[in-house]
Amino acid sequence: MTLHYDLHSHSLASDGTLSPAELVGSAAASGVDVLALTDHDETGGIAEACAAADAAGLCLIPGVEVSVTWEKQTVHIVGLRIDPESSPLQQGLARLREFRHWRAEEMGRRLAKHGIEGAYEAASALARGRIISRTHFAHFLADEGHAKSVRDVFKHFLKPRKPGHVPGEWATLEEAVSWIHSAGGQAVIAHPARYTMSASKRRKLFGEFVELGGEALEVVSGSHSLGDSYAMAQYARQFGLLASAGSDYHGPENPWIALGRLPPLPKSCRPIWSGWDMERACPARLAV
């Protein structure tokens, strides 16, 4: 049977707006057969998601999205099929969460200097897990009328040289790939077309990723156009990388990114799941 994969999604454990169980229920209702929960620098929602997936007959892939600083730019590396109990992974993620907490406080201080009081406290109230993200600040600022939308908040407040911007100090690319591999997972560069970089710099990123043992590119993404996907497919072939597909779903308030609506991978790609034993990983789903 043909399975429908969505290998990039977020829950309340990081900056999504659905609980892990609600996310799984929405994915199942949307026709997703195999879902990866990949919260930012956090695996705390995986146990709940796995229990909900068992009940729904959906295959849940344990994952994480690791924040990386590469050549002064933030990129994200998704880890798929990880062991959430891996000590090296959890130690690394704990360090990133500690920085996230400081960054959130600093964002609040910088916004206060700009005349916006209480931003940190409001963002903290919106966060239901251990992660206080820029998205939580963006929802507060939009709700308070400082911008027309969450997207506008990022544009006017949270980008470099804007009042609430705080540069990231994340894991190195080598650390992120190492943590994922130590957890038995596969490393994927998330939404690669979204990063603002020249073609030569993009090739350098992919080359270093391959040298470190990275396995795949997220060729199809909720933030990729059809042209982006075909361009990333060419890079995947050029660098000998597998292809992944994920919506980067955060919740129903972003209707332009939906679960279960991903276009197929370009035919030239080798899917990351082509090497997975799906009968062993998802017996309940395959029996439906």
Query: What series of H and E elements makes up the topology?
Result: EHEHEEHHHHHEHEHEHH
Q: Percent of residues in helical segments?
A: 40-55%
Please compute the radius of gyration using only Cα atoms. 18 Å
For the terminal residues, how far apart are their CA atoms?
10 Å
Question: Overall mean pLDDT score?
Answer: 94
Which shape, going by the Cα principal axes?
Answer: globular
Largest sheet: 7 strands, mixed
| Strand portion | 5-15%
Could you please describe the fold and organization of this structure?
With 288 residues, this protein is an alpha/beta fold. It contains 11 helices and 7 strands. It has helices at 20-29, 46-56, 87-113, 119-126, 134-143, 150-158, 173-182, 199-211, 226-239, 278-281, 283-286; strands spanning 5-6, 34-37, 59-70, 73-80, 186-189, 216-221, 242-246. Strand 2, helix 2 (46-56) and strand 3 (59-70) form a beta-alpha-beta unit. The model has no long low-confidence stretch (mean pLDDT 94).
List keywords for this structure.
288 residues; alpha/beta; 7-stranded mixed β-sheet
